[in-house]
Design brief:
Largest sheet: 3 strands, antiparallel
Helix content: 55-70%
Order of helices and strands: HEHHEEHHH
Oligomer: single chain
CATH class of the largest domain: Mainly Alpha
CATH architecture of the largest domain: Orthogonal Bundle
Number of helices: 6
Shape: elongated
Strand order of the largest sheet: 1-3-2
C-alpha cells in the first residue's frame, strides 16, 4: 500500500485555523485555541492535532525555540486564496474564470467598493500574471 500524498489544500477546519494565524500572526496553540475554542467549542487537543497535521502538509511552520511551539501560516492569505480559487476554477468551472466570476456576482449583491475594485482590475491595460 502506498503512502497517501499530503494535500496542500486545507480542509475547512484547517482554513479556520489559518484565518486565525493570518489575523493574529504567529501564535501558540493556546492562543489559537482561545479564539477557535470560544467560537466552536473545539478542544485544545483538537487544535494541537490540526496544527501538527497542518505542519506535515506545509500549511504552517512551527518554531520550537522555546518550550511553547509557535505556529505561523506558511503562505499569505492572498496566496492561499489564489490557490483555492484556481482549484475551484479547474474543478467546478472547467477552467473558466469567467464562469466563476459570473456565478460569484450572481450569488450576492456586491458593494459599490467591490464593484469599483472589479472595474479597476478589468480596466488595467496589462494584467500581471499571478505569482
Amino acid at each position: 500500500m502506498s503512502a497517501r500524498k499530503k494535500s496542500s489544500r486545507p480542509t475547512d477546519a484547517e482554513l479556520e485555523l489559518l484565518q486565525v494565524l493570518w489575523s493574529k500572526g504567529p501564535s501558540t496553540v493556546r492562543e489559537v485555541h482561545d479564539i477557535v475554542g470560544e467560537r466552536r467549542g473545539v478542544t485544545y487537543a483538537t487544535v494541537l492535532k490540526l496544527l501538527q497535521i497542518m505542519a506535515t502538509k506545509n500549511l504552517v511552520t512551527r518554531e520550537t525555540d522555546s518550550m511553547t511551539h509557535v505556529y505561523k501560516a506558511s503562505s499569505s492569505r492572498r496566496a492561499m486564496q489564489r490557490l483555492l480559487v484556481a482549484d475551484l476554477v479547474e474543478r467546478a468551472f472547467e477552467g473558466s474564470a469567467t464562469s466563476l466570476a459570473v456565478r460569484a456576482l450572481e450569488g450576492r449583491r456586491s458593494t459599490p467598493e467591490e464593484l469599483d475594485e472589479i472595474r479597476r482590475l478589468l480596466d488595467e491595460p496589462k494584467r500581471k500574471k499571478p505569482t
